[in-house]
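Reader question, answered in our methods column.
A reader sent in the components of a multi-part assembly and asked whether the whole thing could be modeled at once rather than chain by chain. We filled in our standard form and ran it. Here is what they sent:
COMPLEX SIZE: two components
ENTRIES:
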Amino acid sequence: MKILLMGNPNVGKSVIFSRLTGTNVIASNYPGTTVEYMKGTMKYRGEKVEVLDVPGVYSLEPTSKAEEVAVKMLEEGDIVINIVDSTRLERNLYLTLQLLERKIPVIVALNLWDEAKHKGIEIDKEKLEELLGIPVVPTVAITGEGIRELVSRLPEAKPRNLKLSEEERWKRIGEIVSQVQKVYHRHHTLSEILGEASVKPLTGIPIAFGVMFLTFTLIRFIGENLINYVFDPLFELYTPVAMSISNLLGSGFIHDILIGQLIEGEIDYFQSMGLITTGIYVPFAAVLPYVFAFYLVLGFLEDSGYLPRLAVLVDNVMHRMGLHGSAIISMLLGLGCNVPGALSTRVLETKRQRFIAATLMAIAVPCMAQTAIIIGLVGVHGEFGLLIVFGSLLIVWIVLGLVLNKVIGGESPEIFMEIPSYRFPYWGALLKKLWIRVRGFLMDAVPFVLLGVLLVNVLYALGIIEFIGRVSAPIITGLLGLPKEAVVALIIGFLRKDVAVGMLLPLGLTLKQAVVASVVLAMYFPCVATFAVLVKELGIVDMLKSTTIMVALAFFVGAVLNIIL
Amino acid sequence: MGEIQTLSRMDAGEEGVIRKIEGGYGLQKRLACLGLRVGKTVKKITSEPLRGPVVVEVDGTHVAIGRGMAEKILVEVS
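And here is the structure of the entire assembly that came back:
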């Protein structure tokens, strides 16, 4: 048996899903967080049944890829729990009526019940139940209120088999709403005043700059302090252990693989390149603190409801890049990791938009793992270098977007999006989401980092790096002005960009070289995880086009930077 | 009868009732799903510069609409 959770975007389906199944999924306060359905199980009448969290839809006639997924899934379900936003009853009922026209049993969860009360909206749920002819249960998913009742009334769900025309639907909705809903007028709340201020350009644009500045300052502050006061001290405790292993092994191939090269008789966690030195230091002490900081701050931004407002403000610029404002949310996700970023482009309506968004992200949006190491490599020379690296990427992002919009045929649809209310994030939900993402990073990243470090050692031992270095010297040294050993970073970059940037540390690069290398590494090719997702999302042909742009542009921009700096 | 104006040309803060949507069935349906239908009261919140989107309040919620779409929505300003 399959239970489907269906409803408009951003009504809390994923939170209810987590409540029902105990499975943790990412939920945020903006439409389109769930682009792929999630599967879980729950106990129902003593047996295990499947619960599916379906991407949000406004109607059963899909307008985006995510919505197509939703409609297809309806065929397979046995019961629909239709989750309705109590604060937006009228528009939510449209989907409810469409569901009632199908042959599937439906039960309604009136979610965000508490927020409706705050907003002065009163809904007579008994009357609504009578008019719809199916059970209606008020819920507050985030606190768990009403979930038990929802489950206990599942058996009462029934199909209605209504037959309505488009006009009749809206007429019926009008009748229902006028009978069950009372709205009491209240003064503007702080969240409403803030809501307006953050979309009006005169106040909104300064607020956006402020928020972004604060966001990145906070990420850097938290990341740096975690490294300096937590992770580095921990590794100082670990160093004697690693040293005694090193002494035990003596010298030879095993020592080189596990410990790597000793720098002046000591382990250097960035330069040694052993599995149990650099291999664990990079993911845990260099990258994890920044990943943690990034997702903590991002989670707060997501759950507050600010991001859709940012999307509205940047829409005019993004529209000229062939996208619309919501793509900025994908880009922000991409700053954490390009994989979820690429998946989130599914909320965009057309193939053209998805191609542009994915290409721009893969080229010019460095993930947090890479950024963390770039901060280490370039940041030692001061803030100026970082400004050039990220400034160059931003310019590439904008210019390439403008060009792609001109070159690729077709129009991009305009933004059309509901802006959610501001909410103060719940700490419990926030921390849970942070944990899902950090765990995801550790499980996916650590094996690849270790593999990368291992590969470096093997390639060095076999003399392959020496060989490729000599062959590619005209490009690496001639065009980019880097030492020929830097080519190893380009090879390892296929696996993990953080390890790749890390490979540059022992080369003693000048500021200019560090900047060029960071930019080229960020742009030239996505890491293997992102590559796999992009092939799946774009198809192999479009991905080849996208990749050609990446390689060509990376060396072009690298050469230009080499000349002008 | 008040003055009929497109949603994009209304001033921030003005309120009115939607009288006509000049678009195909598809557009009408999409707009309807977010509460923008003939007969509904809307309040203009703002227009973003450089032909950016228009933000309106309908049913107590804010909705962002691309400029092109907003030009097709005719409102009787009260």
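What stands out: The longest strand of chain B covers residues 15-21. The beta strands of chain B are 3-6, 15-21, 41-47, 54-58, 61-65, 73-77.
Send us your own complexes using the same form.
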